[in-house]
Design a protein that fits this description.
heterodimer, A: alpha+beta, Uridine Diphospho-n-acetylenolpyruvylglucosamine Reductase, domain 3, 11 helices, B: alpha+beta, Ubiquitin-like (UB roll), DNA polymerase, domain 1, 2 domains, 5 strands, about 30% helix
Chain lengths: ~290, ~180
């Protein structure tokens, strides 16, 4: 196995153009599992760790651009205020050791329906910045990025450089179901983002369909039902309906981690719970500002 | 996969690996994990292979002071990094305070997970001192050294102990954290 170590982003793109079969590796927490268990024998690995810019973030025109190689640990430490939903999800990824190495870019590259980053990225309308030497860079909305089980819109000669997302303007929450806190692949997960300025709600469903996806009908329903101005308490019937619509948006399967019925039921619970947390935070902000 | 390439042919690279303050010039297979290099080439058998996919934490070591699972870390990518294993925790013949506390609190039974627990605890205490929050840390709350049992259990959740010595592991770490 050839080990390619580009010193710069430009060099990384050159190598990916020359060797489209090269598997990019950052923290290794996903790729190495497959290599150790002989599920995959890549002819080449493309080590992105030397490309330092991938682990940094910046703000341009009010939008965050977060390098694909930024570890979950760094993201939790530096972006919890701007990206609370993604930071919460990051705190539940793997274990502390895994979070010290793993990155959102790796989650995106693997495109597993169970990846913890995906629901908050969807809920917050994130865009994925990918680039190839031949065609330059393009921004892919998260909704268009995930295309199937472990399949994404990334072309063979492209690399993931960053994701772009606006800092939160309202409460964001993430919740997932697993058998223990650490080291679980989510049975199902859910993220919600309230966008009070435009009176919209974003959602993301994980581990309950071939791809991470949004619950569009649930978003439209709840955005219209919420009393954005008076910030009045939630009507329990509205909360229940939101949970039903989120559950209906999923298309789960039975597998070793849980049955489809269980996943649908649990998603409804997660949706009601995270909506309640988010709205209570929204109500509290009225009293403090 | 390209048919014209022999994927099974090993590719080796020469590098210098710095472990516990000693530089080792070594030739490694590009597919080799840090765990295998430590155990098979450097005879540093403290780090253990439990699950080989990052679930158990028995292979935890420190890379530039941060804890990582060495079974998921490629050796070839570490030529400019400083690695600390359980063999490097003591100060000469004086055990690390965590090692002393583990003995005093009887924080092990078979001992297989202990090197990983110790390296993880060293990394964990450094993370807490640096103010890193965990999932059980209240939002906006400051994290200093006040690590209660819930914090220690959550922060050590990447290390399994199949003998179930958790109660004493938590007590040993809590003593050093104070």
């Amino acid at each position: 196995m050839e080990f390619l170590r580009p010193a710069s982003w430009a060099e990384a793109l050159e190598l990916k153009a020359e060797y489209p079969d090269a598997v990019p590796i950052q923290g290794g927490t996903d790729v190495m599992v497959e290599i150790n268990f002989d599920l995959r024998r890549p002819a080449r690995l493309l080590d992105l760790n030397p490309v330092a810019e991938l682990s940094r973030w910046s703000t341009t025109g009010g939008v965050l651009r977060v390098g694909a190689g930024m570890t979950y640990t760094s993201l939790i430490r530096e972006l919890s205020a701007d990206l609370p939903g993604l930071a919460q999800a990051s705190r539940t990824v793997g274990s502390p050791q895994i979070r010290n190495r793993g990155s959102v870019g790796g989650n995106l590259g693997a495109a597993s329906p169970a990846g913890d980053s995906h629901p908050p990225l969807l809920a917050a309308d994130a865009e994925i910045e990918v680039e190839s030497r031949a065609r330059g860079s393009r921004l892919i909305p998260a909704t268009a990025f995930y295309q199937g089980v472990k399949r994404s819109a990334l072309a063979p000669d492209e690399l993931i450089r960053a994701f772009h997302v606006a800092p939160a303007t309202g409460p964001q929450y993430f919740s997932k179901i697993g058998t223990r806190n650490a080291m679980v692949i989510a049975v199902c997960s859910f993220a919600i983002a309230l966008h009070p300025r435009r009176r919209a709600v974003g959602t993301g469903i994980g581990s309950a369909a071939p791809t991470p996806r949004r619950a569009g009908a649930a978003e439209e329903y709840i955005a219209a039902e919420l009393d954005w101005d008076s910030r009045a308490a939630l009507d329990p019937r509205v909360v229940a309906r939101f949970g039903e619509l989120v559950a209906q948006a999923a298309s789960p399967i039975d597998d070793v981690r849980g049955t489809a019925d269980y996943r649908r039921h649990a998603l409804g619970v997660l949706a009601r719970r995270t909506l309640t947390w988010a709205w209570h935070e929204h109500m509290r902000e009225r009293t403090t500002t | 996969m390209n048919d014209d390439e022999d994927l099974s042919a090993p590719v080796t690279m020469e590098m210098r690996l710095s472990v516990n303050g000693i530089g080792y010039p070594i030739t490694v297979d590009t597919r080799e994990t840090l765990l295998d290099t430590l155990r098979e080439r450097l005879d540093l058998t403290g780090a253990k292979k439990g699950c080989d996919h990052g679930q158990c934490g028995a292979c935890t070591v420190l890379v530039d002071g941060r804890r990582v699972t060495s079974c998921l870390t490629l050796t070839v990518a570490l030529d400019d990094r400083e690695i600390t294993t359980v063999e490097g925790l003591a100060d000469g013949s004086v055990p690390h305070p965590l090692q002393t506390a583990f003995v005093r609190h009887d924080a092990l039974q078979c001992g297989y997970c202990t090197p990983g627990q110790l390296c993880s605890a060293v990394g964990m205490l450094a993370e807490a001192r640096a103010g890193w929050p965990s999932i059980v840390t209240a939002d906006g709350g400051s994290v200093d050294a006040r690590l209660d049992e819930a914090e220690i259990r959550e922060r050590m959740s990447g290390n399994l102990c199949r003998c179930g010595a958790y109660v004493n592991i938590v007590a040993a770490i809590a003593e050093v954290a104070r």
